[in-house]
Write a structure and sequence with these properties.
It contains ten helices and six strands. It has 182 residues and is α+β, with helices and mostly antiparallel strands.
Length: 182
Amino acid sequence: MIQPVWKLCRVLANRTRLDILRHLLNGMELCVCDIALEHGLTRPSASKHIRLLAEYGFLETKPSGKWLLCRTCRPTKKDPLYDLWKSLSKKLGPDESQRNEIYRSVTAFTHERRGCIIRLLQEKSLPLEELVNASDISAIALNRHLEKLISRGLVAENGNIYRFTPPSDPVLKSLLKLLLHS
């Protein structure tokens, strides 16, 4: 079973974990100590990042003697993470600006309330008051979440009416697909 999208995004909303994924994308296996060294981490810190990535289906680990080897998972087309993995793989290259785009995209969904807002606005555009009532989120908190969603291009405002804006970014598209099918 897939984890809630907001929890999955919290795992990905970490530049170190994105760099670890990027580093392992070429299909090689690395031990925790190599990953720690490569990324300037302590072994416990590297282990924590690896454990989270493995728990959420991005890495596989296997013991090899006294070492723990890590490699990326390759989901099949039937796997709910397939589209996300595919879009991440394309963007997780040497270009830091693309990793920054991924970080920006996943932070749109790092709170479960934002998923609620997106679901409501996909049904129909709503004024702020109706959105407060329908979401059961305070106006102050709702404004903070709306600001984040607007800055990520998922919501637009026109005269105090908020509407959903379909994303063009492949990472956002795949996250939205996961959100709407969870």
